[in-house]
Structures are given as C-alpha cells and as structure tokens.
Amino acid sequence: MAKKVTMQQIADQLGVSKFVVSKALSGKGGVSESTRERVIQAASQLGYFTQPHGYGKNRKQPSDPAVPSTRQSVLVLMPNVRFQTPESLYWGKILNGVTETLEENGLGVVIISEQRVDAVTGILNPDGFLGLIGIGQISTPLLLEVHRIGLPMVLVDHEDPLVPSDTVFADNMDASIRLTNHLIGCGHRKLHFLGSTGFSRSFRDRWSGFRAAMEDHGLPVQDRLDPMNTLPTTEKAEFEPELRQWLLKHRKGRTFPTAFVCANDDMALVAARTLTDLGLRVPEDVSLVGFDHIDESGSSSPKLTTVHVPKEAMGRRAALRLLERVRDPKAPLEKILILSELVLRESVSELRESAAELRTESVQKEIRQRNEENGGDAVLSD
C-alpha cells in the first residue's frame, strides 16, 4: 500500500512550517501568492491531491442515496472573467441548461460570479449544498478549496490538472477536424487559424483539431506562436487592430490565406467586418468559418458556416452528472464529450482549381507509395 502523503512532508520539502502549508492549501490568507504556488506545485509532485484517502475526503457522505433534506441547493460558480456571464450567448445558455435541470429535480440554485477564494470560502459549507457546478475557467486555489472540503463538483468547459473532478466538454477537437476537412474538401490549401490557444481549453482543442487536419493532408501549418494564435481574445473585439495590421501586412503576399478558421463565432464576425473594411469579400475572396453557433451567426451577411455546440445540453448533462456523483461518490470520474454538428452556410466558397490540384497531388502520392512498395514504376488506371 502506498504511503500517505502528509502536509508535514510537503513542509519538509519546501523548508516551511506545516502551518504555512495548511494555509496555502486551504486557499485562505496569510501566505503570499508565490508561496502558495510553491506549496501547490510540491503537493502535486508528491501526489497529495490524487491519494485516495486524504485530500478531499473530509465530507461524510449520506448513507441514503436520495438527496438529503438538509441539502436542497446546488452552488453554481461562474466567475465573471473572460465574459463568462449569464448574458453571454455561449456561457448563458450553458447556465440555462444547468438551472433548468436542477429545478426540474426540485433543487434550488445559488449562482456566484466571484473568483476570489476568500469571498467564496464563507459560503462553501459542505452541509449547506448538495454540490458545485463550475462553468468556464475557475482558479486553481478556489477549486482546491472545494476539493478540500469534499464537496462534489462537475466542471463545464474547464478542467484543472491538480483537481480531480467530473467534466463536460463539447467534442471541440473532433469538430474542428471536421470543419477544417470541409474547407480542404472545398479546395482550400492556405488556411489560417484565428484565436488564442491560451484563452481556454476549448480554444486549445480547436487549434489542435485544425492542426491535426492540416498535417493529415500534408498542408503547412502556422507556428503555434504565430501572432494570430496569441490574439487578445475577447467578445469586445480588442483583437481587431492586431488582426487588421496582420491582414494589411500579408494581403499582397503569396502566403495570404484563402480561408480562416476562427476559434469562435465572435471572432469570425469581427474578422468578416475587418475583411470587408479592407475591400475583401467573403466568401468570394476569403472563406470564413466560426465555432459555437451563436444566434448572430445566422443573421450575418453572409451567414456564417460554423459548428453547433449544444450549449444547453452541456449544462443539462453537467447537472445530471452531479446528481449521479452524489448518489455514487466512489464511481470513476468521467470526462463527458457532447457531440457537435457542422452548420454549412454561405461564408465558404469552393476553389475548383485548388481542389483539382489537391486531387492530382493525392494521385501522385499514391503512385509514389506504390513505387516504394513495388520497387518500380506504377501506373494508376482511371
């Protein structure tokens, strides 16, 4: 049996007191941010967070699998960062799915839009809530505090490497592969991704899908540190000046994309307006696709090709998963992927010459492969 990792071991490794480690792991004040980060890193390396009978096991589980009468509410945490608000066309619909499902099951909902640990700790009463559902990006110290008191939780569109929990995502990578393949099938070979890979887990997965599709077809992929991969992504289009500058710089170059794959619809709509301002037509000059299928994507001109992310369904599944977790606390943790669908519209045009060239290269590639296998010349019949 593996030896239990204790706070004293963490303290000894760092040369600090056990009291400092306890304060750092609890998310409370009294220690500097740098010390807290050192403690969390050391605890992670020693396996403190993943041990089966330590951290996060303080809470006594009810013997009755039914919802206890003293815990009739669920805490929904949606910190007001990166426009994660109920008014958001993306996050708001996830929240609707969560609250409607909980209310259908006779549960109350307490929504908190706060990120600071000390502001939330006061209400994190394990006897006052059935569990927690986190929507969007939530800080590690706050999640560690929830985990420390043993409150069951499910995270939507976010996961933390230090905090084991059930999670719910859209199939971002697979959907991005299908979306990129659609553009390639339409003959596009010079594609560019728009969206900061550091903005969220979803954006990173969408970039990974784009890259995988491009590499699978032997097409050149922009560097991960390309300026368009580090845009200051917000729903207020703060990235528009940088995008405009990039477009002006590359407009006359031979490497100018024939299509842009945008990390979400908001970016795609801003990109469409910027391209139009520069005298470029969508889709006649440049094709454009988005992601998320927000309402505006269907009312834009031209209507935007995008990926329908079932946002309400993600929220509903998170709520149901929390109820399952409460009934069976020892069940294996799950990462749930909700299938997304392509929505093909007017913002993509076919490049016939490029498509023909792509088919020619595919034939040539097959000839080369047969030559290598047979050691001689190969001829393909029609």
TrEMBL record:
<protein>
    <submittedName>
        <fullName>LacI family transcriptional regulator</fullName>
    </submittedName>
</protein>
<feature type="compositionally biased region" description="Basic and acidic residues">
    <location>
        <begin position="359"/>
        <end position="373"/>
    </location>
</feature>
<dbReference type="InterPro" id="IPR028082">
    <property type="entry name" value="Peripla_BP_I"/>
</dbReference>
<dbReference type="Pfam" id="PF13377">
    <property type="entry name" value="Peripla_BP_3"/>
</dbReference>
<dbReference type="InterPro" id="IPR010982">
    <property type="entry name" value="Lambda_DNA-bd_dom_sf"/>
</dbReference>
<keyword id="KW-0805">Transcription regulation</keyword>
<dbReference type="Pfam" id="PF00356">
    <property type="entry name" value="LacI"/>
</dbReference>
<dbReference type="InterPro" id="IPR000843">
    <property type="entry name" value="HTH_LacI"/>
</dbReference>
<keyword id="KW-0238">DNA-binding</keyword>
<feature type="region of interest" description="Disordered">
    <location>
        <begin position="359"/>
        <end position="382"/>
    </location>
</feature>
<dbReference type="InterPro" id="IPR046335">
    <property type="entry name" value="LacI/GalR-like_sensor"/>
</dbReference>
<keyword id="KW-0804">Transcription</keyword>
<keyword id="KW-0678">Repressor</keyword>
<feature type="domain" description="HTH lacI-type">
    <location>
        <begin position="5"/>
        <end position="61"/>
    </location>
</feature>
